[in-house]
Specification:
The chain has a 22-stranded antiparallel barrel. The chain is built from four helices and 36 strands. It is mostly beta strands. The radius of gyration is 25 Å and the shape is globular. Helices cover 5% and strands 58% of the residues.
Length: 662
Amino acid sequence: MFLARISVCAMLLAAWGTVGAQARRDTTYTRNLPTVTVRGESSRTAASTAPKFTLDGNRLERIGATDIGQAMKRLPGVNLRDYGGAGGLKTVSVRGLGAAHTSVMLDGIALTNSRSGEIDLGRYAIDGLGAISLAIGDNDEIFQPARASASAATVSITTAPRPEDDSLHLTGIVRGGSFGYVSPYIKVSKGFADRYAISVIADYSRSDNNYPFRLHNGNTVTTEKRNNSRVDAWHGEINFTSRLRRGTTLLSKVYYYDSDRKLPGPVIYYNNVNREALTERTAFWQSTLRSSLGHGFSLLANAKFNWDASLYSDVNGKYPGGRIDQNYYQREAYASGAVLWMPTTSWSIDYSADYAFNNLSSNLKTENHPWRHTILQSLSARFKTARVTATARLLGSIYRNGSRDGTAARNASRLSPSVSVSVRPFASQNLFVRASYKNIFRMPTFNESYFFHYGSPTLSPETTDQFNFGVTWQAAPAPWLQNLTITADGYVNHVKDKIVAVPYNMFVWTVVNLDKVRGLGADITLSADFVPARGHSVLFAANYSYQRVEPRTPGSRDFGRQVAYVPLNSGGASASYENPWLNLTFSATGTSARYTTNENLAGTRIAGYIEAGLGFYRSFRIGKCALEPRFDIINLFDKNYAVIARYPMPGRSYRAGIKIEL
């Protein structure tokens, strides 16, 4: 019977093909298994009015994600830019819109980088996370800061919840691996009288990153090694939770990150010497207050102060004195308030207002020392019944720019509407049909507006129109198939005043509003949780994305070609087999070929790839101590590939560790 059920599972997976998503537990069907626990997200994400995908912390462990970058590859429509190695920069673009169109929220408050507009996900450890979710466009979550609605897509990272009791909880993880990788992690948490909780987290990672790679030069293939790649990074944070009174909670976080890394730079033929280095430091404090005010009213208030330093150096004889130092400092003060009113069980109305002040300074004589005031306001309404959910939002944005020296960037004021709807045609089925539209724009970053011999203060904001139509279905068809979730979305994106860099001459580039860009695509996902026999479970997830993103400026050389670094096809799959002996996970992600320029010249083509990984782990207890040793093989088949041109990724590597919980 066990083998028969395994065969049926395999046949069903083959029939559906390589599509995937997150597991969610069906709310209509219930199966009780005394020896097996299958956890997942609720069907709320399946019923979302716009695409939303979630991976909780338990799921991330079980599918073998070794870092946040690996986790993001399991979500549809995501293009991860990875510059290689444990310390390489990792940024996320969704549906070919660019990383600056994707906001990243940490515990409900946005992470920001006013200089580049991109958030490096490589800074954030996967340990201790509650969940990672991706929302594309606007969905039915309306009780949130206005800034959460000010991007084309949002990645939300939440840390693990407060302890469920007043006991002292201790989690320790130690990992080591190839290329000098070492990473200890510790978390201590304690609750007090069911009203207060505090957690202290610290982690450190280092890696030599001196991995070998194969270099192709015509018909010659040589084995080289990445040099000047070492990274040392650590982070610490304190989280405090307080239940001030019934219906009121205060969440506060103090965070610090520090890294020193060498930069290997792009691979250059016959030159493997590079002496660039980068030190990054970030410190912030943030607090969130949630309160139920009674009579259908709720209050949400946020505050944050952020300081960020980026210190770059290059020891090179071409500079006067043989060295160059470029130091950048960013500061942000942020405050947000939202009021939710629920006059009936079906209607919800939210008003949110945000204010942020950003400035940038550096040691460069060419620095403009810019600053920006941002005011965002949103008015949202949601109508929800058992069969229909509909939301509408109007976002008002005001940006006021200035600089201590030089010409300031343009000011901007816009109104951005969005609307979305989800319909459940049959009351007896978890089948949902959804459609959404969102208009949004992004302001030029400080680099795009002011960077010496590059930026332009006359830039206009990029404007994006997003259209999405999709179907989701969720069921628990049999006792041995506890969850089956399928999503399919088609979309059209239009970008106006696309910000691109063009050469002014051989040595100087400038940024201009040049292109109109159109994106056509589809995202398909599937997840399934099998229980083929008592004490055995199989988790399967897969995703596939088709992205046709092309410049549409008439008469341009790149008209109708694929936008740089956006693959036409991408996807992945993972399977986890849990049993009484040794749990196994297998995963594979890949993309088709991409180009480094919009002209799609043959010499700029980057070959596609499929990267696979294999993991082994086992959970057991010794008294009150829970232990989980784990061993992972990354890039199982030693695939030689690059995500960014001339930045080779590591080949096969190994990682081992043990997790201890008390």
